[in-house]
Write a structure and sequence with these properties.
Chain A: It holds the Pfam family Mt_ATP-synt_B. Chain A: Belongs to the eukaryotic ATPase B chain family. Chain A: One of its GO terms (molecular function) is proton-transporting ATP synthase activity, rotational mechanism. Chain A: This is ATP synthase subunit b. The complex is a heterodimer. Chain A is mostly helical. Chain A contains eleven helices and six strands. In chain A, the strands form three sheets. In chain A, strands 1-2 form a two-stranded antiparallel ribbon. In chain A, α2 packs across α3 and α8 runs parallel beside α11. The longest helix of chain A is centred in the middle third of the chain and has 65 residues. Chain A is elongated and about 160 Å long. Chain B has one domain. A two-stranded antiparallel ribbon of chain B has the order 1-2. Classes of the chains: A mainly alpha, B mainly alpha. Chains A and B meet through α6 of A and α2, α7 and α8 of B.
Chain lengths: 332, 226
């Protein structure tokens, strides 16, 4: 704990005081000034010096400022003229206050008093003063020993004991109370911030989700397409089975099957002609799905689906069994 | 220095002017106003104690009675601080004067009683007769209850005065015993001094307790009449 040093007036300060008392040093000569300053406080010396330096630098040989009744204005003036403090701060400025108090004797007399006496008396001043003062008071009966003395001894002794023993812990308890108060408020603030942060994160995640929504639509689209295709195949098969069951003539079926086998062998050898393919199958345009487009229009995505003839060629041309055979022989 | 045993209780004079008023106003300087949210240690502890005491004192009252909280806390703090300051050596305790305690007790008690009679006349009058008394005892009992009602402020004042005065007197007497014994037998003087120390501890406790009792009783009278 650095004790602030009390300095007596230095030479510069003396000069400043002289200047302030009404005479201004201009180029080494003392000149009279029209207004006097009657009372200068230590705090305003810095102001005077700073202002005088500034003026001297700025205006060359012009006279310094005149401050009337500086004592009243010195704190405000110190702050207002801070902009003129071009050089390093002078020693006469106000030192900062110490954070903790100094040692005290008997809880009344600060250590500074004994330091003050140190140059005159040395280190024994505390003890001599203490003993001597007490003895003097007792001998001259300035302080009389009464019954009250003993109650004083017991009361003060009790108080000193309690303070020395429990003082620190009570201080800590008070600090804890304050910390609890601050912690409560801090907790409230943090929970609020967290709430808002959670809301922000939620919104961000929702936004990101919307960006990726098209994947979902694609998957759904594909699902529907696959489902439709399956449905179509199923219907194809059922229809074929139905038709075959409808025309249940065993011999023709057997013959047809045998001849179809032959045809198949033939087909393997020959490529299938385009128009035959055209003839035997129907190309149908089926609307796969419908997307709303531009509020009042609709985009129809169409898929060309190849489905077998609703009626086979044979039925379409109303062939009977002999006709079937004839066609087959032709192909053969 | 002390002519008789009661000189510590005389009104202190400064240049012939009694300075009792100044002494009574002094304890207010020891309870500074809290200016910030986080204050220094002294104010924090005072705030904590005040909160503790007020909660303890006022949680049994209904909302109407809780309007008296400020009054009770001020009373408690005043009596505590005055008594504790009187424990310092050579100091004067205003609450050791009967006049002062009567001045505190009578208005507070009268306030509660008048409030009770104005707002709940029937119930207040009914308090003058305990439940379940035999019929032939009623007139007697009403008189006795009335007397006990009017004794209450006197009891409040005298209780506080007597406790504080007696405590200070005892300390003084045992101190004088110690003083007398110091020349005769140092060992006995030490025993007496130990007794004195214990008594001092008791005195500190008494100051707090008496303040609490005073306030508690007034609050009790309030509860009856709210």
């Amino acid at each position: 704990m650095a004790k602030p040093q009390i300095k007596l007036a230095t030479e510069d300060q003396n000069k400043a005081i002289c200047r302030a008392k009404g005479k201004v040093a201009i180029n080494g000569k003392l000149c009279k000034q029209s207004t006097f300053i009657t009372y200068i406080r230590r705090g305003s010396l810095a102001v005077l010096e700073a202002r005088m330096n500034f003026h001297r630098e700025a205006q060359g040989h012009h006279a310094g400022p005149s401050l009337k009744s500086a004592a009243l204005l010195s704190p405000g003036v110190l702050q207002a003229t801070r902009i003129f403090h071009t050089g390093p701060p002078s020693l006469a400025s106000v030192p900062p206050l110490p954070e903790y108090g100094e040692k005290v004797h008997f809880g009344l007399i600060p250590e500074e008093f004994f330091q003050f006496l140190y140059p005159e008396t040395g280190v024994t001043v505390t003890y001599v003063l203490r003993t001597g003062l007490i003895l003097y008071l007792l001998c001259k009966e300035i302080y009389v020993i009464t019954p009250e003395t003993f109650s004083t001894i017991s009361t003060i002794g009790l108080l000193v004991y309690v303070v020395k023993k429990y003082g620190a812990s009570i201080g800590e308890f008070a600090d804890k109370l304050n910390e609890q108060k601050i912690a409560q408020l801090e907790e409230a603030k943090q929970s609020f911030i967290k709430q808002i942060q959670d809301a922000i994160d939620l919104k961000k995640s929702q936004q990101a989700l919307v960006q990726k929504l098209h994947y979902l639509f694609d998957v759904q689209r594909n699902n529907i397409a696959m489902a439709l295709e399956n449905m179509m195949r199923q219907r194809e098969q059922e229809h074929m089975i139905g038709w075959v069951e409808k025309h249940e003539e065993k011999e023709t079926i057997d013959k047809c099957i045998a001849h179809l086998k032959l045809l198949a062998k033939k087909a393997k050898a020959q490529p299938v002609l385009h128009n035959k393919t055209h003839e035997s199958y129907n190309w149908v345009h089926k609307a796969q799905f419908v997307i709303p487009f531009n509020h009042n229009r609709v985009l129809i995505v169409v898929h060309r689906v190849m489905i077998p003839l609703s009626t086979p060629l044979a039925e379409r041309k109303n062939w009977n069994a002999s006709d079937c055979l004839r066609e087959l022989r032709k192909a053969h | 220095m002390n002519e008789n045993l009661f000189t510590p209780f005389t009104i202190p004079m400064m240049l012939g002017i009694p300075i009792t008023t100044l002494i009574i106003m002094f304890p207010t300087m020891l309870f500074p106003t809290p200016n910030q949210l986080i204050n220094n240690r002294m104010i924090t502890i005072q705030q904590w104690l005040t909160k503790l005491t007020s909660k303890q004192l006022m949680n049994t009252h209904n909302p109407k009675g809780q309007t008296w909280s400020l009054m009770f806390i001020s009373l408690f703090l005043f009596i505590t601080s005055t008594n504790l300051l009187g424990m310092l050596p050579h100091s004067f305790t205003p609450t050791a004067q009967l006049s002062m305690n009567l001045g505190m007790a009578i208005p507070l008690w009268a306030g509660t009683v008048v409030m009770g009679f104005r707002n709940k006349t029937k119930i207040s009058l009914a308090h003058l007769l305990p439940l379940g008394t035999p019929t032939f005892l009623i007139p007697m009992l009403v008189m006795i209850e009335t007397i006990s009602l009017f004794i209450q402020p006197l009891a409040l004042a005298v209780r506080l005065t007597a406790n504080i005065t007696a405590g200070h007197l005892l300390l003084h007497l045992i101190g004088s015993a110690t003083l007398a014994l110091v020349n005769i037998s140092l060992f006995t003087a030490l025993i007496t001094f130990t007794i004195l120390t214990l008594l001092t501890i008791l005195e500190f406790a008494v100051t707090l307790i008496q303040a609490y009792v005073f306030t508690l009783l007034v609050s009790l009278y309030l509860q009856d009449n709210t």
